[in-house]
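Submission checklist for the structure archive. All mandatory fields must be present; incomplete records are returned to the submitter.

[x] Identifier: PBS lyase HEAT domain protein repeat-containing protein
[x] Organism: Gloeothece citriformis
[x] Residue count: 223
[x] Sequence attached
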Amino acid sequence: MNPLSLEQISTQLESPNSRDRLLALASLREIPAEDAVPLIKKVLDDELLQVRSMAVFALGVKQTEECYPILVKLLETDPDYGIRADAAGALGYLGDIRAFEPLVRAFYEDTQWLVRFSAAVSLGNLKDIRAKQVLLEALKSEETVIKQAAIAALGEIGATDTVEQILNFANSEDWLIRQRLAEALGKLNTPKSISALKFLEKDPHPQVSQAANLSRKLLETSD
């Protein structure tokens, strides 16, 4: 099947059939960012949440100067928390360091856990060490997934001085937390990291033990 032209995609994005609009957005995958973004903007206010969500994600992948301010505005003002969470996630994909402060605000001020979770993940994706204190706060969250995100993000930003704090989760009842811990330790090269990974290699859950084994080998080969 021949790829759709820009004109065909534009027409399809205006179709009353939501499936057409979703397919049109998917067709933008191979389109250069400067051509794709104006088309994506056409459906940012679509009546179907799935179309809006896909469009927001696309702005994180198709990176132009327009994308950052649009995503920040969505993160800060959109009434739908799912879209705010999508915008937070897209800012992480965008990798623009200016997103640090909007993401921190979203983590502290948004009342929805999904938005706070996406903000924590994206702070890790930015790899900015300034996020350390926010992520340590996230470890205290009542939401398990936010703890998972914070542990992973501390690994991403290379916060080796937080190893002591995240090791408190080595005996967590949630195996995904233990897996995130094992993965994060592979990016935090300290003597305690190696000891903890040897402990986690004996974890009863196979995905935890496998992650720990891989992380330990990574640390040992990087010395």
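[x] Structure attached
Curator remark: The first helix runs from residue 6 to 13. The two ends are 51 Å apart (CA to CA).
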